[in-house]
Write a structure and sequence with these properties.
Layout: E1 8-14, H1 19-33, H2 38-59, E2 67-77, E3 80-88, H3 115-122, E4 125-130, E5 136-144
Antiparallel strand pairs: 1-2, 2-3, 3-5, 4-5
Helix pairs in contact: 1-2, 2-3
């Protein structure tokens, strides 16, 4: 935990699917540390896994020379607190408006194309954009309960 009480965790790793489980462990720890209940930790994990898998598979095309970056940070907005997660790849990027609607009749039986849809349903806010450093990034926000004096802090 940062001295100001904010959680900040940064991960950088190669495009290896074996890293997804590690990121899940970190996400679970951060989620519990910021006060999410078991259900909240579960849905946070689903969103993180989908985002990291997309970054490895679609963004970096499985290229082990390219990296995936994951940042977790708590943000205070007045009394409100949020957990912001940023997942960034080093791929070519894409136009977020071009994502097909997985609920459209022609897409219902397709075996892929639901990742971003799932992420949007797990988190309170989701934004896809080209990262200033290059590649694509997904920024996900989960609103948190106000911090009380009895809350435990996360050890990072």
């Amino acid at each position: 935990m940062a001295p100001n009480g904010h959680v900040v965790v940064r991960l950088e790793f190669t495009s290896a699917f074996e890293m997804v489980d590690f990121v899940q462990i970190v996400a679970d720890h951060v989620g519990r540390g910021v006060g999410l209940d078991d259900e909240g930790v579960h849905w946070l994990g689903v969103a993180i896994r989908e985002s990291v898998i997309n970054a490895i598979k679609h963004g970096n095309q499985g290229d082990a020379a390219k990296h995936v970056f994951v940042d977790f940070a708590t943000i205070a907005r007045g009394e409100a607190r949020e957990l912001m997660i940023r997942v960034r790849d080093e791929g070519e990027g894409f136009d977020p408006e071009s994502i097909a609607d997985p609920l459209a009749r022609e897409n219902l039986l397709k075996g892929s194309g639901r990742g971003i849809f799932i992420v949007r349903n797990c988190m309170d806010d989701v934004r896809l954009q080209r990262a200033p450093e290059g590649g694509m990034e997904i920024r996900m926000t989960k609103r948190l309960q106000p911090k009380t004096s009895t809350d435990d802090s996360v050890e990072t």
